[in-house]
Here is the input.
Amino acid sequence: MDNTKRYERLRERYLNGGIDRRSFLGLIGAAGLAYGVQTPFARGALAATGEVRFDGWGGVVSEAFRKHAFDPYTEKTGITVVDGTFGGGDEYLSRVKASQPGEYNIAHLSGVFDYARYHNLGLSSTLNEDNIPNLKYVIPKLTDVFRKVTGGTLSCVPYDYGTTGLAYNRKHISDEEMKEKGANILLDARFKGKIAGWSDWRTRIWYASLQTGQDPNGATDMEAIWEALRTHRDLLLKYWNSGAELMSLLAEEEIYVTEAWSGRVFALQEQGHDIGYMDPPNGFGWQECLFVMKGSPMEACEELLNFMLAPETSIAVAEGQNYPPALDPTKVDLGKKIPTLPAFDPSGTLDGLTFADPAYWNGHEQEWSKLFGRIQKGY
Here is the structure.
């Protein structure tokens, strides 16, 4: 039996409900390995099912994508967007590495360091930019950093940016105290049991760098950083693992202060919670991208990316998830709400944000993530 007949039989079983999507993709992948079928075969299989899988951060972010991007895209094209969620980048990457080729398609990744490590693991694709004309609206600085990683081509499109700053309950901590203490508020014993922190090792080391007076992209005294991490751990109520958990901790006043994602804090403020937000000097700036995995149905993915970058879609999503879009404000009228969002840069240069150096952070990932894991467990 030739490869085409094998594929047609598997496809027929899938469309008739005889096997689920995961099993279908697994069999396609196994057939490719056994009979020399390469990536385009799996790509065609996915395109034939009329689905694209998208994985993101959940909560208000996923709600914004679903309402303003995925449902309208499906209505226009007939292609279903199956969306999943994850709480952290390391957790999601583990899933991808254990999956079959083509099982995951587009991911809402955070930071150029994520883009670089996916590329270094052989998971990147090459987008046909002619199929994504709305790239012309994107802030050039956001695109250029990705091109440097992948030799001038793109495996993603930039989509939004923001900061991981400090969120605090104004009933218990004043704006003046925050300005005075900055990142060191997370080490203040007065708030023991009312402090939280994201369980992400990069964020923890970034803030420990600030607390010890060091450059977060070039710390030299790591012993001081490990000690700051232990001090913070001993004052914590808990480490949080998702945006939904972060918002719940702040809204229910279980905690008074934590580092937090700018858009999630804005959402709480919109809900009427008296939560303040500030970016300390050298605070953690980031951008997010929509990354297309190797083995995905490229034309369908490119069409979705172009749809999502259209100004009307991108602005609606940005207003829904409370993060500024990657669109250049000197080229596109972003409306009234977006200029009020935390981290928004009206110049389109993003010169006021400090981004993570991908080579620095990826170069230390194995050692530092392991050491933070030990500290997190109480060692």
Confidence is low (pLDDT under 50) at residues 28-48. The domain at 51-161+286-355 is CATH 3.40.190.10 (D-Maltodextrin-Binding Protein; domain 2). The two ends are 58 Å apart (CA to CA).
